[in-house]
Amino acid sequence: MMAPNYQSITISDVDDDDAPLAMVSGKDETKNPHPEDHLAPPFDSDERPSSLLVGTFNLIATVVGGGVLSLPIVFQKCGIVFATAAMALSACTTYLSLVMLCYSSRRAGGSSYGEVMRSAFGERAEELVAWLLFVFLLFVIVGYMVLIRDIWTPLALLVLPSANEDYVLLGIV
User: Sorted alphabetically, which keywords does the UniProt record give (predicted)?
Assistant: First the structure.
C-alpha cells in the first residue's frame, strides 16, 4: 500500500467536513504539504502503530504518577479557585506545546527532542537538550524514590519496628 501524496492535496480539493486541522504554511498558501501535522491519521486508522490497550496503560501510568498523587496537597495549599485555574492553564499550554513539538518534529524530520533541536539550532543545542533531559529525569527519579520511601516505610515499620527509611528504599530498589 502506497502512502498518499500529501503534496498534491490543495485546500479546494478537500471536503470541509473531512478536512484535517492542519496549518497552511509556506509560500504557496493553496497547498497543504503536511496535513498530518495535527495528529492524523485518525484515531481508528490502521496506520497508527499503537493500540488502545497500550495507550490506556501509558496514560494511566502517566496520570497516576506524581501528578495525581500530589493534587490533594496542591489544592490544600493553593485553594480550589487558583489550583483549578492553574490546572486549566497548564492543560492548555501542554496541549499547545505538544502540537508545536509534533509540528516541529514532522517539519524537521526528527524523532527525538535532540534531533529537532539539532535541525533548528545546531549540534550544540542537541547536546544542551541531552543534558537538560538527563538532569530533569534524574530529579524525577529522585522524586519518585522519595515518594516510594514515604509510602512504604510506614508499612515496613508494621512488620519490622526497627526498619530504617533508607534501608526500606534500598530494599525496594
Answer: Amino-acid transport, Membrane, Transmembrane, Transmembrane helix, Transport
Helix or strand (DSSP H, E) at 40: none
User: What one-character DSSP code corresponds to residue 42?
Assistant: P
The dihedral region occupied by 54, where left means phi > 0, alpha psi between -120 and 50, and beta the remainder, is: alpha
Q: What is each CA distance from 6 to 34, 144, 152, 154, in whole angstroms? A: 6, 44, 54, 58
92-99: Cβ within 8 A, 24+ apart: 99/38, 99/39
First and final CA of the chain: distance in angstroms? 47
Per-residue pLDDT tens over the stretch 128-167: 988 998 998 888 888 888 888 888 888 888 888 888 888 8
Residues 26-65: pLDDT tens digits?
A: 444 445 555 555 555 666 667 767 677 777 777 677 767 7
Kindly state the cell numbers that stand for 159. 512488620
CA-closest candidate to residue 104, choices 121, 116, 92: 116
DSSP 60-107: HHHHHTHHHHHHHHHHHHH-HHHHHHHHHHHHHHHHHHHHHHHHHHHH
- Residue 36: what pLDDT? 53
Q: Residue 45 forms beta bridges with which residues?
A: none
Phi first, then psi, for residue 73 (nearest 5°) are -70, -30
